[in-house]
Specification:
Elements: H1 6-17, H2 19-28, H3 45-61, H4 73-92, H5 100-127, H6 132-150, H7 154-176
Helix pairs in contact: 1-2, 1-4, 1-5, 1-6, 2-3, 2-4, 2-6, 4-5, 5-6, 6-7
């Protein structure tokens, strides 16, 4: 049997960028009558609210100066766990979805890649002397777009990213424009 692992890779990448967002994307798009486990955990209002609260909390906490690096062993492991879980939940919603072990492996591996890519992006911006917050907002926008694509809601993702993009692009333009005396 063939499995389309593209969406599993995307939801894993999202979890590497923002650990809670992959699970939240799956939760918020799970139908109320879903009975397949583990997606059924998100079929009720409390599952959706809990996942959304975790994602919003992380989007805010990521910008705080005392937030630890995602590259700590605990940070990488938790992102891989969230990526694996999000991929398993996503696959469980589909009649011909990948088996749980395959979905977990794909989601966790993609999450590791997303973790490293996000850290590289933020470090590159910092090394260029740019403030962190515009890079963080652009990373948020990329994660939201990938999340929407992973769960099959590309129009909603585009609208969310457009709003975030307008804010981030204005901030980024100001942060990237040369200041006096800075070549």
């Amino acid at each position: 049997m063939k499995y389309d692992v593209t969406r599993l890779v995307l939801v894993g990448l999202v979890s590497g960028l923002r650990s809670q967002l992959g699970v939240a994307a799956v939760a918020l798009t799970t139908e109320a009558g879903e009975s397949a486990r583990p997606a059924s955990l998100f079929a009720g209002v409390w599952g959706k609210r809990g996942a959304a609260a975790g994602a919003v909390g992380e989007l805010v906490a990521d910008k705080l100066p005392w937030t630890p690096s995602r590259l700590t062993p605990a940070g990488v492991a938790s992102r891989m766990a969230f990526g694996g879980f999000a991929a398993v939940a996503l696959a469980s919603r589909e009649p011909d979805g990948a088996p749980p072990a395959l979905a977990a492996a794909v989601g966790a591996a993609a999450s590791a890649v997303g973790t490293l890519a996000g850290a590289y992006w933020r470090r590159t911006a910092a090394e260029a002397g740019r403030p962190d917050w515009p890079a963080a907002l652009l990373e948020d926008a990329a994660a939201l777009l990938l999340a929407g694509t992973a769960v099959g809601h590309t129009d909603a993702a585009r609208r969310a990213v457009a709003g975030a993009g307008r804010t981030a692009s204005g901030a980024l333009a100001g942060a990237l424009s040369p200041s006096p005396g800075r070549g």
